[in-house]
Design a protein that fits this description.
- The chain is an all-beta fold.
- It has one domain (6-118): Galactose-binding lectin (Jelly Rolls).
- 0% of the residues lie in helices and 57% in strands.
- Strands 1, 2, 3, 4, 5, 6, 7, 8 and 9 form a nine-stranded antiparallel β-sheet that branches.
- A hairpin with a 7-residue loop joins strand 4 and strand 5.
- It is globular and about 35 Å long.
- Residues 1-9 have low confidence and may be disordered.
């Protein structure tokens, strides 16, 4: 069994609320391996996670991993549609963003967005 050691944790900013099509919460990733995030949903909307490797110019979708779920998906999910705790791998990324790509009504609030770094 491999033991993980956390050598750093940083908050990436204030809580963010997404409430319209293409609303986005963008964060700079100065270092680190994973982003951890809690999401609270009220309404009908979908949020995708995207990473940039070039300073925020170009974006590609990335997978989110639900942390506490009876239906944990080993390969991750490409979007969030419900409240929960999520993790995503950001190794090599300069920026991450959570973007509302489908909206009917309501809000998604992202809280406790933190960056962690594994021991090397």
């Amino acid at each position: 069994m491999i033991k993980q050691e956390w050598v750093g944790t940083d908050s990436l900013g204030a809580d963010m609320t997404l409430s319209a099509l293409n609303d986005a919460a963008t964060f700079v990733v100065a270092y680190g391996d994973y982003v951890w995030m809690n999401a609270t949903w009220a309404g009908t909307l979908t949020v995708v996670a995207e990473v940039s490797l070039d300073g925020g110019t170009n974006w590609v979708a990335t997978s989110l991993y639900p942390l506490i779920s009876a239906t944990f998906m080993a390969l991750g999910a490409s979007s969030i549609t419900a409240s929960g705790a999520y993790k995503l791998d950001v190794r090599g990324a300069s920026h991450i963003r959570f973007r509302c790509n489908s909206f009917t009504s309501g809000t998604a609030t992202l809280t406790k967005v933190t960056l962690t770094q594994d021991a090397r």
